[in-house]
Structures are given as C-alpha cells and as structure tokens.
Write a structure and sequence with these properties.
About 40% of the residues lie in helices and about 20% in strands. By secondary structure, the protein is of the alpha/beta class.
Length: about 500
Amino acid sequence: MLKVLFVASEAAPFIKTGGLADVAGALPRALLAKGIDARVIIPKYGAIKAGFQHEMQTQWTSTLNLSWRKQYCGILKLTVSKLTTYFVDNEFYFKRNKLYGYGDDAERFAFFSRAVLAALPHLDFQPDIIHCNDWHTGMVGVYLREEFARDPFYKNMKLVFTIHNLKYQGVFGREITGDVLGLPDSLFTSGKIEAGGCVNFLKSGLVYADAITTVSRTYAKEITYPYFGEKLDGYLRSCGGKLQGILNGLDEDEYNPATDAQLAAKFDAASVQAKKPVNKEALQKRLGLPVNRKLPLLVMVTRMVESKGLDLVLRILEELLQTDVQFAVLGTGDAVYEQALAAMARRYPSKLALVSAFDEGLSRLFYAGADIFVMPSRFEPCGLSQLIAMRYGTIPVVRETGGLKDSVQPFNKSTGRGNGLRFSNFNAHELLFTLQKALALYADAPVWEKLVHNAITSRNGWNKSASAYADLYHSLAPQPDHRHHRKVK
C-alpha cells in the first residue's frame, strides 16, 4: 500500500485560519478511500481544542538540533474518523495566541520541518511520498535531500509540493541561512534556497520537489506569467513538466444543505425550489432587510481585501442598488472597504446590509439564502466560496481567473448547460453587465430553476482531485523492493 505523509501548517478539524486547513483535512481522507495510507502532520498549537489535546497519545520525545539550538521535540498522535494525524510539540514555538506573524516564524517552521523528518523512524510509518504544502513546509525538502537522505531509511522518499497561494512565500534575510537553518551558505549562493537576495522558503520547496502542484489548472498556467507570478514566474516557467494544476474539491459532508444545522430549512436538489426561499426570508430578517421572496438577493462572503475585487463592487454598487435588488456582505478586512460599505448601507438601509464579522454559522445562511453569489476576484488560486455557493443552490458570478474559471461553467440559455456566470477582465462595468445578465435570468423563472438545478447538482467533491493525486503519487513512488526498513528499538 502506498504511504503518503501530508505536511501542513494547519488542518481541519484541529486548527484553521484558511482554505489550507480544509484541504489538509479533506484530501488525505479522500486518499484513504482510494486505498492509500495517507496521514497528516501539523504543529501542536496551543489553540487546538482541549478535547482533541486530551485524546492525543505521545509517540516519541527527543531533543532536536536547529543550527546551534537544542530544542525539545515531542510527537503526539490522534486518529479521527480513520485519519491519523501527528502533532509536533514544542510549547516555545507553538503555544502562542495565533499561528503566524511572529518575528521568529523562520525558526518556528524550520524547526517544524526538521521535526517531521526526525520523527519518521519512530512512528512506524515510512512514507513513499512526503506531500508538503505552502511556504511553512518549504524546508522539508532541503533537509531531506541535503541531510537526512544520507540515511538509507529516507533515500527513496519522493517530494510533492503544493502551492496554495503564491503570494505568501516565507521570505527572510540571508543571515538566517547558517544561524537559524543550520545550512551551508553555498545553498544560498547557488540559488537553491534564495530568491531576490533573500532566503525564500517557498522557492526552496519548489527546487527540491519531484513534482509541484497548485490548486487549479488555470492557476498553474497563470503563475508562470509576471502578473500572477509574484516574482517567481521565471523560476516556475523553468519547472516545465514538473508543474501541474489539480483543482481542489469541496468537503461535501461538511458543506451539505440537507444536513446543515445552521439553516432555517434544510434542502437538497429535489426540494431546493420550495425550501431555499425559507432560508432567504430568515436571512433577510436576520439582516434587517425587507422580507420579500421575489427580490433577488446578492451576497458576498469574503475577506475585505483588494484582491477580492471590492474596488469593482464599490464602483458599481450605487448603480446596482438603484434597481430592485438586495445586497448583503459578510466579512472583515481593510477598514477602507468596511467604511465605504457601511456608509453605503446607511444610505440604502432597505437594500444593503453589512455584517463586519467572521461568522461561520451565519455564512451558511448567506450561502443558503442568497440567489446570486458575487466573486469578482483579481486572482483566486482555487476558491472555495464558489463551490459552497453552488452546493447551496446559489449562482456564482465570478471573474475568469484560477479555480473560478475551472469550476464555474458559463450558463447557456439555449443548451441549458452551465452552472454560473463569468466575466473576463478585472473591470467594474464587465462585472455590472454580468450581474445584469444574471438578474435577467432570475426574472425568467423556468430558466432560473434550470440554472439552480445545474449548480446544486454540480459535483465538486474530493473524489476527482484525490484520483489525480493518487495517479501523481503512483507515477513518482519508488518500487517496494528498493525500500530500506529500519527497526526502531
């Protein structure tokens, strides 16, 4: 049986700040269903719920060297619904208020990367593939190839590295090469761990990987262009056949309108026309908007940052609100966007509602109660919101970028095919035109019913992605007869 260790800085259901945690929780589980022995390893953060912490069992404790430092390292293990997760324990590094954003992040995640490899001989688990995710795990490949592979136990392990968002690269000063990472300066001068005159964790992960994936086919192409490439486009172009895009899936058990306790009325594809309006009324009531089933309700559930297309929305919002619509926004972020939306909500209190919060429960009602989901992102590696929207029978209007382009198929009235609407340029009037097109479809009840049916029956689960990853792993995996096993006393 093929063995895969999934290395990430966060994983649901234990700890989550973003989409990476969803992937780290769902993809390994989908791989298990395909007969792959997939396991996960993350840091043991202090913020992990006590209920989980109490159930963890210690597997190994030791002292780990990181350059001149000697640090305690513990490995704990917990199996939840058949998926085994290991936790790297060091309270100095991981018992903090938040996960990222500290001055010693380079040291914290270099320690994590070393700990992953050092622990393996003691876990009764010798992976064929180590699957690393984002910059926090970039040093795993460096330490594996430059140091640990001298030991036959590690020799045949293959590395897959997934870019979830190229914007975040883990960039640090050159001085950490020896002092923190404990690596020879030659790795910096040769460019293996360097980009733009700095140590770059993400680039290091790419250099040492046997295969690089990213989270949609379109994003895999986009990041080889300067506009999306975040200064690594040149290197990514040189990766050629090593780079491919595999679209993320959606955890369809976690996001299921038929079982979601946050909804006013649960529904599925058969009952969506009858039950979705009940959720719409509940959402209108909750937001203080006039309760009216007939009015089209447009929503955004988003981080309020420039890349999510808030500038486009603000440019056309007044024009949109002068028609018969309601618009609601849930999210937090840059004050400039929150203030502009709040001012507009004061001017149009019966048409625009703003909830400046991160509220997972309320977000489900947004997805279930809305008619149209607005997602005009400047870039979107994969995107999760459009997949959730479709699952809840809400029609996504998206910009053609990254995973939005790969998952939303434009609706064609004459063939009745397609599950949403798209526009191509990052342009406010293209967004407005596409929203007007969506509203015209909404006004034609039989056509809209067909579109909603297409959206809610779209299959976006993890099965297809897991199959693609399984194929990739099998293409890389060493033959069993070349393996070196080691008994740990």
